[in-house]
């Protein structure tokens, strides 16, 4: 069977199935993009936006921010089905990421539309990057993942105005530690499928 790259299928609904070729993991097609914007919870305004705006008005020059967003941490996790918005797969624990960095976009610090559920290392590496691909804007076919190396790359379908953001995004997604994490997930899926196949044959 042909090996190489496999293009992402639409919607973040979890880690895709692994295919086998010669007993090795062949494909890992994450259901990542496009990702629909998550609806704002009804209590978000009272718990986060309003106290946040009050603080911003009283502290116009502060570079640190009260973490009111963590009052809704569980809601952000639930909105993204416990999956990292950037890596595309389920994570056991995550963080509320501000897609637009807090230091550069004060007006969006306490806005639901700016929150993404994110794996901790990915969030650390993304920190303060002024340009980054937003899963809400990504379209099917803009990115792909190599089914052998499990590294991301962009395709010719990526619009020219997103090239800089894509380069910054790939620096994070192809971090060696995050790639190893994908490999562990791939290995786990392969073992699971191999066990299911053996059970059916017996």
In brief:
The chain has 202 residues and is of the alpha+beta class.
Tell me what you see in this structure.
By secondary structure, this protein is of the alpha+beta class. The chain has five helices and seven strands, in the order E-E-E-H-H-E-E-H-E-E-H-H. The chain has helices at residues 44-58, 73-79, 120-126, 163-173, 176-201; strands spanning 5-7, 18-21, 24-28, 95-98, 115-118, 143-146, 152-154. The strands form three sheets. It has a three-stranded antiparallel β-sheet with strand order 1-6-7. A two-stranded antiparallel sheet has the order 2-3. The radius of gyration is 19 Å and the shape is globular. The chain starts with a strand and ends with a helix. The model is unreliable at 1-31 (pLDDT under 50).
Mean pLDDT: 82
* Percent range of helical residues: 25-40%
Radius of gyration (Å):
19 Å
- The helix-strand sequence is EEEHHEEHEEHH
Kindly estimate the percentage of residues that lie in beta strands according to DSSP. Answer: 5-15%
